[in-house]
Amino acid sequence: MQAQDRATIGARKRPCGSFFRTASKKSMVIPPREAHHRRMQMPGWIARGAAVAGLVSCASQATTGLPARTAAEQAKADRYVARFEQKLAEVPDDAGIRYGLCEAYDDAGRVPDALKCLEGLDLRGWPVSIRAMDFRPTREDPQFATLLRRSDARAIRVDGSRVAFTAPAELVPENVAFDPKTGAFFLGSIPLRKIVRVVDGRVQVFSKAGVAPPLLSIVGMKVDSERRTLWAASEGKRGAEKALSELLLFDVDTGELLHRFAAGDGKPHMFNDVVITRTEDVFVSDTLGGGIYRVSNRGSLRPFVPAGTFPHANGIALSRDEKKLFVAYDLGIAVIDVATGAHVELRNDSSSSIAGIDGLYVHRDGLVAVQNGTGLARIVRISLDSEATRATRVAILESGNPWFNRAGGTAPTTGVLVGDRFYYIANYRPGAPRPGEKPPAEPLEDVRVLSIPLAP
Fold first, then answer.
1. pLDDT given at position 69
2. CA–CA separation, 65 vs 136, rounded Å?
3. What are the average pLDDT values for consecutive 10-residue runs of the chain, which has 456 residues?
4. Is 61 a domain residue?
5. Which InterPro entries match (predicted)?
6. How far is residue 178's CA from residue 162's CA, in Å, rounded to a whole number?
7. Is 383 helix (H, G, I), strand (E, B) or coil?
8. Range of the domain at 94
9. How far apart are CA 412 and CA 14, in angstroms?
10. Own/partner pairs for 100-105, CB < 8 Å, 24+ apart?
11. Inter-CA distances, 394 with 45, 160, 226, 271, 417, Å
12. FRET pair for 361, CA 20 to 30 Å: which of 1, 224, 296, 379?
């Protein structure tokens, strides 16, 4: 779930936060300003998760600068800065990593450093608009407005998407899935903690009410059309229990909940995105834990890649030969050997950044990604070499779409491939109130699911 965490997407997927306040749902390594929902205050996608898990509150930071924090929280923010400074020293030309460092400075309260960092992006001509909500104290400085205007004037606009269907605003879904057999789409609601089916534009009930214990907020979903099942990652809290997470298995035709899978180790988790092999091995990213879990033959949920390996692990995709997993995390993309669990960093030989990605998908011999953690969001195609170990080119498919930055803080999050089209949620709004809670200052708008053609 990003940028509101990275994060609950705020001023873009950080609707409340961004690169470091986000996550797309995110571990106890989430930086201080943990109160946003997705990319809004953690890397967009990170914040989203944190807020959903009940770790932070987007509204509590909506109108002020940095909230009061303990010495331990400040130390955490300082460590985040050090992590990005180290990464930037390794890849000094990666503007996405530099943007993340700017956010980290801001989150640590280092406004002069944040401004200097943003000036560096400006001098390099970074063609992505700064998202104002990613910078709480820094945006109060008059110099920030100048840098923001420059970035907006320079930003690349690409318009290729069209509205595929809409859904009621109160759903606030973070993910969409598709069943090729019936042509139905599925949306998982964050605040309402349920799944709905969409057929020919009509929204229908899918998950059944009254299950015990109640479902958590629904995040990533995938349909296994052959076995007629739907797998969904869920996370949130029940009562005083926070940072709970379950992998759910439903009958895709009836909506019956068949099984729940949990880590069972008593530690906080935030299961985020899911992928399924042809033999029904299921892999799920854990944003809070920073690892990957696996379920084989519907057995127990077990660690596949250890916690802490991929900070803010988010989108996950499977190569066409099913030998590799691609996992997006805050600093880039990891490539994992499915047989052994061994992993390497996807080397980026392109001229653009592959950091700050939320949704990630394999299309033909490359990747399609929702990049909402490095400024205003965009949809990109990442070309790979023949070994799938290097990114050779990043092409922008959609950028500057008005639904990516609506009042109240919105951003695209994740989607689903349907043939050579990509369907995705365009206006995820982190920090949406649950039933009975005070409505937001900016009214929610109907959910927009857009589609964009993917050229061969």
1. 84
2. 5
3. 37 36 34 32 40 36 59 94 96 94 96 97 90 93 97 93 96 96 97 96 94 95 98 91 92 97 94 97 97 95 97 97 97 97 96 95 97 94 97 96 89 96 95 75 92 88
4. yes
5. 6-blade_b-propeller_TolB-like
6. 18
7. strand
8. 4-154
9. 10
10. 100/19, 100/20, 100/43, 100/330, 100/331, 100/355, 100/356, 100/373, 100/374, 102/135, 103/18, 103/19, 103/20, 103/21, 103/43, 103/134, 103/135, 104/19, 104/20, 104/31, 104/77, 104/80, 105/81, 105/138
11. 20, 16, 33, 28, 18
12. 296
- The count of C-alpha atoms lying within 13 angstroms of the C-alpha of 157, restricted to the half-sphere facing its C-beta, is 8
Contact present, 271 and 233 (Cβ < 8 Å): yes
Strands 378-384 and 366-371: antiparallel
Contact 200, 440 (CB under 8 A): no
Backbone angles phi, psi at 138, to 5 degrees: -65, -35
The residues pairing with 348 across neighbouring beta strands, listed in sequence order, are 391
H or E element at residue 220? strand 217-224
What is the distance between the alpha carbons of residues 223 and 57, in angstroms, rounded to a whole number? 31
**Could you tell me if residue 198 is inside a domain?**
no
Helices of type H across 25-110: 47-52, 71-90, 95-107
Residue 205 lies in a domain: no
Distance, in Å, from the CA atom of 426 to the CA atom of 370, rounded to the nearest integer, reads 10
Q: Give 403's DSSP letter.
A: G
Nearest Cα neighbor of 175 from 163, 191, 193, 187 is 187
Query: Can you give 173-218 as a three-state secondary structure string?
Result: EEEEEEECCCCEEEEEECCCCCEEEEECCEEEECCCCCCCCCCCEE
Q: Which residue has the tokens 């365009």?
A: 426
C-alpha span between 417 and 40 (Å, rounded): 26
141 occurs within a structural domain? yes
Query: What number of CA atoms fall less than 13 Å from residue 417's CA on the CB side?
Result: 20
Total length of the chain: 456
Q: How many CB atoms lie within 10 A of CB 386?
A: 8
CB-count exposure of residue 54 (10 Å: 0-12, 13-18, 19+): middle
